[in-house]
Write a structure and sequence with these properties.
With about 210 residues, the protein is an alpha/beta fold. It has helices at about 1-5, 25-30, 75-90, 105-115, 130-135, 165-185, 200-205; strands at about 15, 35-40, 45, 70, 95-100, 115-120, 145-150, 190-195. The longest helix is centred in the last third of the chain and has 22 residues, at about 165-185.
């Protein structure tokens, strides 16, 4: 919806409500000239930024240097950034990079020089059987302690060009993969389960660039 609004200013309005709205209520909502609003008990509410007091963050769990951190989309730019951060800032020493494409040998070499032991596996995270097999191969000496899900496929286009097939292509590794990762690791004591997602959901496709 954000992308549709950015491509067609003034044409789309997102209205949220717990109850069915009358035509008059919808017309009134559209007439407010707001891109998004909520109707609650007859009131029209719009999102606004406000200043607030930050709460004390919960203490973060310590990352076990002997544990294995799994990173999906392992040959991508985001995976590389995450891996470097984990090794240099979190003390991670065992990485498992998953990717459907060939591993990034330069990244593996760089991480090795930083003191990390890197393993790679060819795996489609939207394939439960393949992912189960990869997880079963994690060494008990270095059990899985965190998951970083950066995998994704880009199939960009304006709203009018979208098809069911294009949506499936994008959602399969990102959304389906996240669900499968969750199911297969839900009983594992993880220090973190981190999912990367596009900012377009908040800002629209153009605002996210």
């Amino acid at each position: 919806m954000r992308s549709a609004q950015s491509e067609h200013p003034g044409r789309f309005v997102l209205v949220e409500s717990d109850d069915a709205l009358t035509q008059d209520q919808l017309a009134a909502a559209v007439g407010l000239d707001e891109p998004r609003l909520r109707v609650s008990d007859g009131r029209y509410e719009v999102p606004r930024l406000t200043r607030t007091h930050a709460e004390e963050p919960e203490p973060e769990r310590t990352w076990d240097p002997d544990g294995t951190v799994l990173i999906t989309g392992g040959s991508g730019v985001l995976a590389g950034i995450a891996a470097r951060h984990l090794v240099t800032e979190r003390g991670v020493r065992h990485l498992l990079l998953l990717s459907r494409s060939a591993p990034d040998e330069a990244l593996i070499g760089e991480l090795g020089e930083l003191g990390a032991r890197v393993e790679t596996a060819a795996c489609d995270v939207s394939d439960p059987a393949a992912l189960t097999q990869v997880l079963a191969g994690v060494s008990p000496e270095h059990p899985l302690t965190a998951v970083i899900h950066t995998a994704g496929v880009v199939d960009d286009g304006v709203v009018e060009s979208l098809t069911v097939q294009r949506l499936e292509t994008v959602l399969r590794p990102k959304a389906d993969g996240a669900g499968i990762l969750h199911e297969l690791t839900r009983n594992t004591d993880l220090a973190a389960f981190v999912m990367y997602s596009s900012a377009a959901g908040r800002h629209g496709r153009w605002g996210a660039r």
